[in-house]
Amino acid sequence: MLTACATSGKTATVPVLPYGRDLANEQKxxxxxxxxxxxxxxxxxxxxxxxxxLWNDIHPxxxxxxxxxxxxxxxxxxxxxxxxxxxxxxKKRSSSQKKTILSGDNKKLLKLNWQWPITGTIVKNFFQSGxxxxxxxxxxxxxxxxxxxxxxxxxxxxxIGYGNLLIIKHNAxxxxxxxxxxxxxxxxxxxxxxNQVIAKVGKTSAGQPALHFEIRxxxxxxxxxxxxx
Length: 229
Hints:
Blueprint (H helix, E strand, L loop, with lengths): L1 H6 L21 E3 L6 H8 L3 H7 L13 E3 L4 H16 L3 H16 L11 E3 L9 E4 L5 E3 L4 E7 L7 E6 L4 E11 L6 E2 L4 E5 L8 E8 L2 E3 L7
Antiparallel strand pairs: 1-2, 3-4, 4-11, 5-10, 6-7, 6-9, 7-8, 8-10, 8-11, 11-12
Helix pairs in contact: 2-3
């Protein structure tokens, strides 16, 4: 079953396991394989791509290479060096320039206006899922829509327990994830608009048509209900 899930194409034909991470918490290193991105590794490990980028001194656009070793733990020395390299150019700016930058970032975050990815009933809430998103009931093949505009940073079936999965990056802080899809309609690197159809609803491990939906802030899952209208 695990092999089928990990190697299937764009259509899920087997049930998936309960939601979890295939990178154990005690694992210290991960070797990048074909198809991996820093976003997917951060998602699988639970650390988020921003922490991995910091710990491994990886800078935007966060490119990783096959065979590259990624640290999955906090290295205080590494963090200190990375922070100093980031802060150095900021010290050269005037106070007025800093205020402009901070103001612009805040406005960008405030512009996010989430919507429900499908119309349905919550059948598994945030706490029932182990604080890993919500399950929304639907019908098989129902259109799944982007909850906000952004860029697709993962599109595939390589994360055990998520079936056909999409991850969309909305800004430097927020990601959204759409799991258990029967079909994926967008590819990695594609920019999508809010309300754009990105996938079709599939089935959970229990065989019920439903979408698993997550919102992640700085790589950590937050309760989507607190963000959705």
